[in-house]
Amino acid sequence: MNVRVRFLPDDITVDAEVGEPLLDVADRAGVFIPTGCLMGSCYACSVEVEDGDTIRACIAAVPPGREQLTINLFSDPTW
Length: 79
Prior knowledge:
By secondary structure, the protein is mostly beta strands. The protein is built from 1 helix and 5 strands; from the N terminus they run E-E-H-E-E-E.
């Protein structure tokens, strides 16, 4: 099943497969998400999903049960 993933603030949309790593989806869409440890510990890859929850993109995948997922990218000057 495909999920439309929309990256804000640039409003870039790409189709992704359920279970596909979020960093891979972003890379395919040409969207840069900063990373540090790649284990979720440093929070460099924190992004906000449409319901207001913050997730770490390096350990997150496209979730099942939805047709669209909106990701709001943070701007962190330390990364």
